[in-house]
Structure prediction request, 440 residues.
Amino acid sequence: MGGTLLLLLVVITNPSFISVFPVGLINVIVFALLMRRLAPLGASPAVYFAAYLSVIGLAGFAFTNVLVGSGGTGGVDVALEDDLLVAGSIMFFSGSTVVLIFAAISRGRQKGSEPGGAEGLLDLGDLGRFSAPILIIGLVEFAILIGFLGPAEFLSRPDRLVGRDSSFEAVFQMVALGAVVALAIVVFSRRGGVKFFAVVLLAGYVAYFISLGTRRLALVPLLILIGYILARRGKIPVIGAVATGLLALISLSLPLYFRGLPMHGLLPHLEGLGTFVWDLQVFATSANNVLAGFKISTLTAFTQPTIPLDALWISINPVTGNTAGWYEIARTLRLNQFTPYSAIGELGNYGPPVFAAVFAGIGLLLGVAQRLNDLLFREQLWKLVGVAALGLTFVFVIQFAQYNLRSNMRYLYLMLLIQIAAVVIIRLRDWSRQRHEVRG
Prediction:
């Protein structure tokens, strides 16, 4: 009901949305019909992904042109014609609908116990007992990140973008997000020297994100909130969640500001904070950056030259970039030197058949991911793996409208790899127990 009212509100304020309304209404109906099949919704990667696409499809149509001139869009801060707004919105709603349908198909009907509400889903027991390995792994991970970046470049450098551009570096950058959550768990569950060391190491990760000037800095408050919730066994502080959302919005404006500084790295970025002022213009820039994915995707899909179909296999191939031939085509899949094509925009550029087929495949994989999590969430220890998988889903989701398809698919593959490995271990353990029981 709420989704339908939002669609009607946009039609009233912008009559051209009437062309999108039927597709949006179908999306709302599919959501309503499949909610039970994909329950619990808090453990459904497909629901997160589809909801994100729907929200961007709606908000992008309503506010993209309103925010033109606010900056923060990587060189694509232009108004879209009505026909492009309509085409882009239909593309997002269509992707959302296809994902939901095929996720529901692959997930099927589940038997056995399901996690309860959010508190039951996130109650992983006393995770503080893992403080020692968390601190050791966190320290090693941080050392590796600085090794990739280079100690001198970490502190100061002339260029914003640095690194070895390798698949291994990309994996460790993904792991860094999980490390922040894990360290936050230690901070909120332990005292004394252990807590102090976790705070220092957590500050190191924040410094790393500041040095890079990456928008992942905006995720840090949310990651710390997740760590707090896990440390408190699933209890979600409402006021804290609202404050974290506001802090994340402020944090998003910082990387956009850092990009305009003459020097980069931790020291220049910290020094530049002295002239940073957070006002309504900064808020508009942050909002424009969030919705830039709609514009990037629409321009990629409907204004750029047709992408050769060969590039699709390279983009979804799970092997390394060098082996797949990614670096031979990466520079061609960009709107400009600052802005890569988006994943959904690339798929839209290939045309409806490819778009539908790939989104159906993604839906099938996300449905399988939820089935795997159904198994993992049945045991306290393995819940942690399931929650980590959902964390990778969030990164996959929020980057799908702003980064290349290949950059996003690796999060999906890593999530499935972690889940499958965990389920295999569980099956082997159960098989071993059964053998011992038979012999006994």
Confidence is low (pLDDT under 50) at residues 112-118.
